[in-house]
Amino acid sequence: MPDLTLLHESFRRNGRVNDILLSALTPADLALSDGHGGWTVGHHLTHLAGFRQDWLSNISPEHADGLFAPVKGGELPDTQTLAAAFQAGDAAALRAVRAALDENRSFPDPWNEGTYQSSPAHFLQHIIVHDSHHRGQIMALLRAGGHTAEEMDALDHHWAIWRE
Predict the structure, then answer these.
(1) CA 159 to CA 156: how far, in whole Å?
(2) Is 56 strand, coil or helix?
(3) Which ranges constitute the DSSP H helices of 3-78?
(4) Given this model, what pLDDT does residue 1 score?
(5) What's 47's domain CATH number?
(6) 1 in any annotated domain
(7) How many CB atoms are located within 10 Å of the residue 66 CB?
(8) φ, ψ for residue 16 (rounded to 5)?
(9) How many C-beta atoms surround the C-beta of residue 64 within 10 A?
(10) Is 33 exposed, middle or buried (0-12, 13-18, 19+ CB in 10 A)?
(11) Does 42 map to a domain?
């Protein structure tokens, strides 16, 4: 079995970055949008938290049970609820990947698009990249929403996590 120590550490660091971002946000921040019909900060975060449950429900349903699933058109959760959803989703993703690797199998491919067929660990990489994509959008919304340069610099300190 391949050594996934570095990937697991990167995945955990990604979770820490999410925690830092969530702890810095105010309720008013969750409502920030681009003013042109794009998602609010809260919608981006809700999407990210639901991403884990959504994918796991298709590739490893037993690991998706009880995870956060956003309600379409429903009220957006607060940052504490989102933080708990991220933590539970990350733990479930790690368990799903470990189970697939321990059983020497790939994940099912429900859409016939080669979903993680070379290694189940690619699911963890997908989460890291997907989270990073949306965090960039969130940072842009915060900046455009009036956060000062000092406030944005404080949020940028999460980069230190990647240099440990």
Answers:
(1) 6
(2) helix
(3) 5-24, 27-30, 41-59
(4) 66
(5) 1.20.120.450
(6) no
(7) 9
(8) -65, -40
(9) 20
(10) middle
(11) yes
- Please give the Cα distance from 93 to 161 (Å, whole number): 21
> CA-based angle 96:102:103, to the nearest 5?
90
Cα separation, 34 vs 37, in Å, equals 7
pLDDT tens for residues 122-155? 999 999 999 999 999 999 999 999 998 888 888 8
> Which H or E element spans position 96?
helix 79-102
Q: Say yes or no to pLDDT of 15 above 90.
A: yes
**Is 80 within the bounds of a domain?**
yes
Average pLDDT over residues 78-95: 97
- Mark residue 33 as left, alpha or beta (left: phi above 0; alpha: psi -120 to 50; beta: remaining): beta
Q: What is the C-alpha radius of gyration for the chain, rounded to an integer number of angstroms? A: 17
In the structure, what pLDDT confidence band is assigned to residue 71 with cuts at 50, 70 and 90?
A: confident
How many folded domains does the chain comprise?
Answer: 1
